[in-house]
Structures
1.
Amino acid sequence: MLLAVLGFGSSSALASAYGIAVTVTMLITTALTFFVVRYGWGYPLPVALAATGVFLALDAVLVVSCSLKFMEGGWFPLVTGALIFTLMATWRRGRELLIDSIRRDDPELLPFITGLATEKMHRVSRTAVYAVANPDTVPQALMHNLKHNQVLHERNVILTVVFHDTPWIPFEERVQVTPLVPGFWKVQVNYGFINKPDIPQALELCQAHGLPINLFETSYFLSREIVVPTRGAGMARWREALFAVMSRNAGSVAGFFQLPNNCVIELGARVQI
């Protein structure tokens, strides 16, 4: 903010930037109000237009009047907004491509672990928690653990965290435990938007659902994908490169979910998008 004030050099140029930022925000807010009235509340089209049409026209006049100051500093909030939108859109599209690529290459979970249950593989007397976004495919960390370490834990938990639109999820509804095959369970942890994620605390709630977990004998396996930009379908090459940089600098889920640092194992994989 200080650099922006120094860069503009005058209060009039800063006022031009502020005026366009405010009026465009008002216009966007009114436009979104129309969709809320029409599709969120289900009112007829004439009612939605009558409720927002006057405000849309007024906001449009204000935007046009402020656009005369575009070259005097009004460009700054528009360029800043465009850059932020590009980053957000690139991250969202990149995550979609990344998840699609992982789902395309990973086998289905239930047939895979059913075959593991019949094999006489060395098992470690601990609990392994595999945090995944898609609980229907085999976690990358599980596949790497089997391939490179050639061991399987006695208790394996396929963990999925779901955030709901409600503010608070009661503790009795916080976890859902589904037995799969001997030695494997699927656990879904539910949070509201004001709940503070705490996976170790949530795992303690699994005991009431028939799955006792000793947190001192639990390891958390996380998959960390290294994005490799490729030519062809997907995004433009520069957007894929941008997403790769953003992915490398993204924070780890271990801190967000309050996982103990000395019990987290991250296994990386190179994924082409």
2.
Amino acid sequence: MRRALLVLFLILASNAAGLVSAAEGKRPNILFILSDDHTAAHLGCYGDATVKTPNLDRFAGEGIRFTKMFTVAPQCVPSRAGYMTGRSAVSVRMTRFNSPLPREIVTLPEVLRKEAGYFTGICRRSFHLDGPGPNRMGAVTKGVYQDNHLMTFDDRVDFLDRNSPRAQTKAKVTEFLEKVPGGKPWFFWVNFNDPHHPWDKDAINPPYDPASIKLPPHLPDLPGVRSDLAAYYAEIARADEEFQIVLDAVKAKGGFANTLVIFAGDNGHAFPHGKGSLYDPGLNVPLLMRWAGTIKPGQVSDVLVSGEDIAPTCLEAAGVTPPATMTGKSLLPLLKGEKFTPREFVFAERGVHGSSNFTEKTRSSGYDLSRCARDGRYKYIYNCTPWMPYSPVDSAGDPGWKQMAAAHDAGTLAAALDKTYFTSPRPIFELYDLETDPGELTNLAGKPEFKQAEARLRHALIEKMILDWDYLPLPSE
């Protein structure tokens, strides 16, 4: 009798294991590739006729391209916090650029590992969520980090490569895939350096001709602006080459059967109106997804997407219910062609950048406190430090900005651009009609004919700030 029961137990256990294995086999591998400082407009598949990105363009045609994807912040660290937590940077206490992600904040790879048995990893450029790194800390900061065990990502993933150079991309992807236990699904986050500032004018050969570039409405036609854009474009082309290196490495180690591949940017370009600002060039990044057999090829979606939405999308694709703390909205129904209710608004915040210290000479590039809400047509920006003089993040020393400043001093800069970049103090409230003013140069805040649109976005922002326990004062109702 005991032997019969033992045999029955073994059969049932074997069947159960088989069911678990079968369920795990249906869970997709997830490859998340992130470029650095990449505004969506600067890709061939987004309509840029100058930059050459054949690999990403082809990939976009094999899946779905999102036109209105907005990061939770126009800076590397808080944006990546949004991607990995499915929450805003404010709610996870990551509005200071060089903060470590708090230990109690749960990340996407941790949930995948615990709830779905994934093997997880991160590689290449710094993922920015463990603080500034030991080599960039002062003695006091380093002591605080060490004494309080604030660098936590060695415990959050199975494979961690903190900052390998581009030449190691293929090797690191291969190394990770070789470590994946047989039968386990995997999640791998690959980080690019490109097209981050400073821009390498020799990134590709031959370089781009500055005269061939079509300028966006928020930048003046100056030789320095064109030369800076040409160098930036070269790094985008190099990122396109690295993207294919990653795909080839994955293909060589097992291919893409049942693999969700996501390509996105962490924030926008380091030009005026871009990185560090809450205008669309700072927040609107590319988002491309491919999942053969699930995502119908050749799709283009104009729904609003937030950086908060990536984590819950990946979790639901893996058959895992996102934690209640995640405020992002899963895109899985849309990816599968099912009924999908899009979000009404996206939100973003701006805080301290880099390791900036507050002095009397601090400009907005190092310290700025602002929030925004955007719907499909209008953008509402709330500036809490409007007295900070504007300066672009990273590129203030480049020819483009220097020539813009010189044109301002000479009185030759176009009036709309001069008002946008050199008004001090800046307005506390800004409202833009993105259909009629895609460059976000004409502030409509306070105009009676736009009262309803402004109130709608202000009320949405107030709700977001309250629910995220934002530390800034609320805009008046």
